[in-house]
Write a structure and sequence with these properties.
The protein is α/β, with parallel strands linked by helices and 252 residues long. The protein has a domain at 7-141 and 168-195 and 241-250: Rossmann fold. The chain is 37% helix and 23% strand. The chain has helices at residues 15-21, 27-37, 56-61, 73-80, 118-125, 144-157, 163-166, 172-178, 199-206, 210-213, 217-233; strands at 44-48, 65-69, 101-107, 126-139, 187-198, 237-250. Strands 2-1-3-4-6-5 form a 6-stranded mixed beta sheet, with helices on both faces. Helix 9 packs antiparallel against helix 11. It is globular. It starts with 14 loop residues before the first helix and ends with a strand. The model has no long low-confidence stretch (mean pLDDT 94).
């Protein structure tokens, strides 16, 4: 593994795989954002970290005019193939358009944004009364015998990726957004949905997770193979319950 690999950019190594196996988002999540922001077809929206367009395409389908930022050339190429022309840059490096967007959003990407002024930059990009929406698919952990077997595999092959690490708590965003003077107090909305995976699909999905991708190749293969064996022992298919946690705030 090269020491020069940056974790937030390793997705480009498997851009097509990412597009094929990463989960999308249910329509209710987008409807929640549209309703909260009082958004209408033709409104401009800035997307931070558009990736291969998992959220971009669904936002565009609702009539929004998307300015999509994506730093990975490989991920941007997949998005471009869907008819959306991204700007290949990070939010931190992008030349800020001030008071230009009724909506700024990031799907599965905000945690990769650096810079102490990142919230202030978002507020500056928004029109007065505009909204920011930061959201993630967060898969629930399995319990019972399946959960115990999965935990044992991680403990054996990648103990630093234990259940505590895999379980995100992004509620700190409520405090961070609310502490930004330009924003009204933030709100959280949650949309729950589920998806089923075969062994092959689950291994392919894990291969797109950055904390798995940066493992040495042999270690990653051992980990994924052992997890696949667990799935086979539990019927060859697993169901994942996802919470789409959406953090919303309005520019004063």
């Amino acid at each position: 593994m090269s020491s020069q690999r940056e974790q937030r950019l390793v997705f480009g190594e498997v851009a097509e795989q990412y597009d094929a196996f990463r989960p999308s988002y249910p329509d209710e999540a987008f409807d929640t954002i549209i309703e909260y922001g009082h958004l209408c077809p033709g409104d401009r929206a800035l997307e931070i970290g558009a990736g291969t367009g998992k959220a971009t395409v669904k936002m565009a389908a609702r009539g929004l005019e998307i300015t999509a930022l994506e730093p990975s050339p490989e991920m941007a190429a997949v998005l471009r193939s869907k008819g959306i022309e991204p700007i290949e840059t990070t939010f931190e490096s992008w030349r800020l358009e001030r008071a230009a967007f009724p909506l700024v959003y990031a799907a599965q990407a905000w945690h990769w944004v650096h810079g102490a002024d990142r919230y202030e930059r978002v507020a500056s990009a928004l029109v007065p009364g505009g909204v920011v929406a930061l959201f993630w698919n967060q898969g629930g952990e399995w319990d019972g015998p399946l959960g115990a077997a999965i935990d044992a595999v991680y403990e054996r092959h990648a103990p630093h990726l234990n259940r505590v690490v895999r379980q995100w708590n992004m509620d700190v965003l409520l405090e961070q957004l609310s502490a930004t003077p330009a924003f009204a107090p933030a709100e959280k909305r949650t949309v729950t949905w589920s998806q089923s995976y075969t062994r092959a699909e689950w291994e392919s999905l894990l291969g797109t997770h950055s904390d798995h991708r940066i493992l040495p190749e042999e270690q990653r293969h051992r980990l994924h193979s052992a997890l696949g064996d667990v799935i086979d022992l539990h019927g060859g298919r697993v169901d994942v319950s996802y919470d789409v946690n959406i953090y919303l705030a309005r520019r004063e």
